[in-house]
Amino acid sequence: MRVGIDVTCWCNQRGFGRFTRELVTALVNLTSGEEYVLFADRQTAEITEFPESCRVVIGETSAAAVEAASADGRRSVRDVLAMRRVVRREQLDVMFFPAVYSYFPIAAGVPCIVTFHDVIAETLPRLVFRSWRSRLFWQLKSRLAVRRADMLVTVSQASKKGLVSHFGRSPDRVAVITEAPASSFTRAIGSGKVDDGALRRHGLEPDERYILYVGGISPHKNLDTLIKAFAEIHQDTRLEDVRLILVGDWAGDSFHTCYEELCILIERQGLGETVHFPGFVPDEDLVHLYSACQAFVLPSYLEGFGLPVVEAMACGAPVITSNVGSLPEIVDGAGELFDPYEVTALADCLKRVLGDSSYRRELQTRSRQRVQDFSWEMAARQMRSIFETVKA
């Protein structure tokens, strides 16, 4: 079977970029006889090393898709046609888009699979897009992708339910595959080792107590609620040494950021240096930030999967996350859940985890056990089965 894969979002630092890199690598490693043809824009191909066993076809584009397809961007018609042409020239049994963000229309005749990681943009559009124009372009692209796709793929049962409800898609035309932590995080399972140098590189001292968040610095991530809850627990003298570390590329992210608004909130709450934005942190250092934190918090209003949660679990971090969307499904009893609209509910979770060392150790044990249920090899086998189904 000859499978085409759009890899124009390969370099994105958010979850759908990691999904693309990890899933394609796992598919190639299955050595199951499929031939993979990777379609890249010129800008991505120039800075990327793709798996050697894959044929790479490059579209002559004027801008990287990962930038042009962002919240405030729009791909040129010329670039869309350039990618469409290179796909049309290849003899494919199926074409796979790992993210609808970088979807472009392909000619009829080739079965098409499109991944919708979530329905955040459909459910919370005003928190994702800055303008009505951006929302309109997103809606047009999404509807076009849904109409063209023979199968939609998503990453949780909660997201599948959302897709079926929003787009009116038949449940048997929406498939679910898993996500998983990358090997850099799974190697940390049970090690308990923390590199002090990695902490210092990102503004932390060894043995310093801190709460960790990892992800986009975006409105739908609900970081204002986390900051307010942190301000509430900071009034407790037993917790006044605890810091809040918000990891995310607020400066270079091509998606909607609320960094400036959060900085204003932090000053109003009188938190000063107790809240720190280290920016983007590479995996080799991030594993140590996960491993050394007192608690990992993902307070999002909605997630399609919540990849930082399983990364944190792999590193043995106690997890606190919101009780909506996919997150209860992914955590499955291994962490604390709270209502993302209730500041006090999150503050109570933080107080319990930070104030009870035996309970914190129990959550660490649950994390390490739960993360064993996720692997990219499993995701690749699930994806290969979908290829076979669509091809047939």
Describe the structure.
- The radius of gyration is 21 Å and the shape is globular.
- By secondary structure, it is α/β, with parallel strands linked by helices.
- Strand 1 (about 1-5), helix 1 (about 15-30) and strand 2 (about 35-40) form a beta-alpha-beta unit.
- The mean pLDDT is about 90.
- It has 2 domains: about 1-180 and about 375-390, Rossmann fold, CATH 3.40.50.2000; about 185-375, Glycogen Phosphorylase B (Rossmann fold, 3-Layer(aba) Sandwich).
- It has a 7-stranded parallel β-sheet, with helices on both faces. A 6-stranded parallel β-sheet has the order 10-9-8-11-12-13, with helices on both faces.
- It has helices spanning about 15-30, 40-45, 65-70, 75-90, 120-125, 125-130, 130-150, 155-165, 185, 195-200, 225-235, 260-270, 285-290, 305-315, 325-330, 345-355, 355-370, 375-390; strands at about 1-5, 35-40, 55-60, 95, 110-115, 150-155, 175, 210-215, 245, 275-280, 295-300, 320, 335-340.
- It has 18 helices and 13 strands.
What count of helical segments does DSSP give?
18
CATH topology of the largest domain: Rossmann fold
- Overall 3D geometry? globular
What is the name of the CATH superfamily of the largest domain? Glycogen Phosphorylase B
Strand order of the largest sheet: 3-2-1-4-5-6-7
State the low-pLDDT regions, or none: none
Please give the number of β-strands. Answer: 13
Helix proportion range: 40-55%
Mean pLDDT: 92
Q: Using the CA coordinates, give the radius of gyration.
A: 21 Å
How many separate domains? 2
